[in-house]
Amino acid sequence: MSKVEDFLTKEEEQAVVEAIRLAEKETSGEIRVHIEKTTTLAAFDRALEVFHLLKMDETELKNGVLIYVAVKDQAFVICGDKGINDLVTTDFWDSTKEAMAAQFKDGHFKQGLIDGISKAGAQLQKYFPFDEKDTDELSNEISKG
């Protein structure tokens, strides 16, 4: 599979967007998913670049989380902003990535993304609970490159 369009069906995309919406319902944190075909950079470097391009580093509490996927490269990265990174355990993103990788290995891309979103959302809820004054600072839609 090398095309972004083949990674998720429209229905699967909507399920991922709904998982983001549900995760963000209980937190002031922001979660985004970005999918692209390939990158010439190291996946982590490209994820950081996308993080900035999507303005995820501009959230008020620095509590954005990006799940970046390069389909053809079979690479993905989870990166959080300083606010959340300073609070989660040092192995949290690795354990989240392992849970997602297990689903991806079996071709369950939608479920892998949903599992990652759910785990990130639970940590965001723990450290950045929802407050009535919170606004949804970033789109929940999947961005594509």
Give an overview in words:
A hairpin with a 4-residue loop joins strand 2 (64-70) and strand 3 (75-80). 36% of the residues are buried. The two termini are 16 Å apart. Strands 3-2-1-4 form a 4-stranded mixed sheet, sandwiched between helices. It is globular, with a radius of gyration of 14 Å. Helices cover 46% and strands 15% of the residues. The protein has helices at 4-7, 10-24, 43-53, 82-85, 92-105, 109-127, and strands at residues 30-36, 64-70, 75-80, 143-144. The model has no long low-confidence stretch (mean pLDDT 92). The chain is α/β, with parallel strands linked by helices.
Stretches with pLDDT under 50, minimum 5 residues: none
- Shape label: globular
Beta-strand residue percentage:
15-25%
Secondary-structure class: alpha/beta
Biggest sheet record: 4 strands, mixed
Q: Considering DSSP H and I runs of 4 or more, what fraction of the residues is helical?
A: 40-55%
How would you name the oligomeric state of the polypeptide chains in this document? Answer: single chain
Number of helices: 6
